[in-house]
Amino acid sequence: MNTMNTNDIEVVLTIPAIGREQRIGSVLNHVCQVMYQMENTNTESNRRIVWDFGKCSFLHPYLLGALSVLKRMYGDVVVCRNIPANIVDYLNVIYFHEPLSVIDDCNNDDLWNRYHGKTYLPICEFNPKDKSSIKAQELVQSTVRNQLGGNMHSVLSYMLSELIDNITDHSHSPRGYIFCQTIPRQNILYVFIADVGRSIYSSYASDPRYMEQLDNSESSALLLALSGKSTKNRPESENRGYGISKTRELVVNGLGGEFFLLSGSAFARHDAGGEIIADLPGDLRWNGTIALLKIPTVMPPQFNIYNYIS
After folding, report:
1. First-to-last CA distance in the chain?
2. DSSP readout, 191-220?
3. Which residue has the higher pLDDT, 309 or 211?
């Protein structure tokens, strides 16, 4: 991703073309470069950050999700230019420039009718503090039911419930985001779920029970979450670690997919090749948490969801 200064009020970032075949780690590298540039650009005195899409023929769903949330966070500071004609309509359809707002009293049937039979749900924004989080979850479930069928829909419903509940109960985030894209030819569903609240590390650091298990690295908190450690005095099915660890096991071990977590300055990646948990280099961080799920839409013959949620 190249950067150049064109004048005193602009910094230009070239957004790379990232194909669907790219691994999640490769997408993260590009997201981190954007994050780094955004954090290190002085946006005072009406300075703008230009995202140049001129080299893009395709944009990976995960990159789109992260860029959309960053654009929402920085507001008018970000200007998009040189978007190829074949991408302009797509970005508008998925609400890239301004996420679709799901409100507490919205009519789900009206929204569902818009996306019935579609292979995607646009980037949606909801308020974790009210019932719009439930509305957003129902909308995703309704949208993918047509693509995945009954059994897969049940599995996805469970995973979404766990991850969205984490945002609602633990993140203290003013906004949550959901985006999903099915690639029928590859039998793959991409799911992007994010918040802009406190990191998983901050959740555990606020609980005296885990102070001795944390060190100065935020990756130590991801280890706790992925092992199912609770940050609430609640039944196991209602705590943060349970939801993250069980979803990871279900996606990777049960369905043969990929699971990725970025929270604060640490990340975790788990796929058939194994698991990596590490801290980001330097001062890079995402203020909040992103969960990425790459889910095969064809269920393995011997799959049994109760092996992963009991």
Report:
1. 44
2. EEEEE-S--HHHHHHTSGGGGGG--SSTHH
3. 211
